[in-house]
What does this fold into?
Amino acid sequence: MPLHIDLLTEPTGAQLHDWHQVLTAALGHDLPGDPVPSSDDVSAQLTTPSADGRKLLWLARNTAGAPVGTAALQLFDEPGRSDLAALELYSHPAHRRLGAGSLLLDTAVGAARDNGRRSLVTRTTVGTPGDRFLATRAFTPALKLTWRRLRFDSMDTAAIGAIAGEQHPGYGLETWEGVAPDALIDGFALAKRAMGAGPAGGIPQGHVPWNAERVRSASEIFAKRGQQLITVAAIGEADGSVAGYTELVVPADGAGRALQYDTAVVPGHRGHGLGRWMKASMIRRITAELPGVTEIETDNADDNRHMVAINAGLGFVPVRQTVEYRLSLAE
It folds into this structure.
């Protein structure tokens, strides 16, 4: 079937509506029972500039004008990742196996090469049509992640409260929404570097230049999308340093599923149970102050045994696996 692809340089309301239509249909079909993003969420994601590069967007239609697929290509510009691109591709389930996915993939691969990229990565859920689609291409599985979910209506509230109430001599907790307080922002930037920049599953992570300016700009992106970024940090009482932190992003409507973002403990402060403490304190805060939030979802590489154990101890249960595929674009 003949298809037409538009590069969306400044997406219109109608184009954003069509994008949302494809995305929700694909997610509803491939991940039944999972929440789908609202049209406002999708518009904010597509139109808010990224802190780590720029994004190219394509929308595919059939001859009747119906939207049949989308592709978003992230071109990173950070040191160590300037040769990397990341792709999100969705095909409408009612129009699959008609060539839209292949055409969008070829378009994105060509654009990545034209922009000097040597590697392209993308993620899909194991066992879905997207997984089978990529397995037949030249992509190589690079990193498998297990997604875990904590439902508040079935968690052990008393156990969470006990962990959150533990005493950790030499440390205290600070919590903030949005941008880190001025007194902590430089230390928070240093702690951000503890997430590491080495390869993960052979995928280069690069060097993210975390400083106060970068922290502010990254935090402001969530605000522009209407999302709420909440951080709990462990502070060393001796010197006021940020010893570790955990971040959670709450949807714009303050309801449903919150997403766990980074959790990290600075190397010199590890071995004191700070990760578990911070995460339990975050859960206690969310359940007390945001009654519309019903669950938290997070992901871990299977070889990250320490964080897997922490999440399991807090009541997170595995719900699905995703795999990151890598395509070499080197000639």
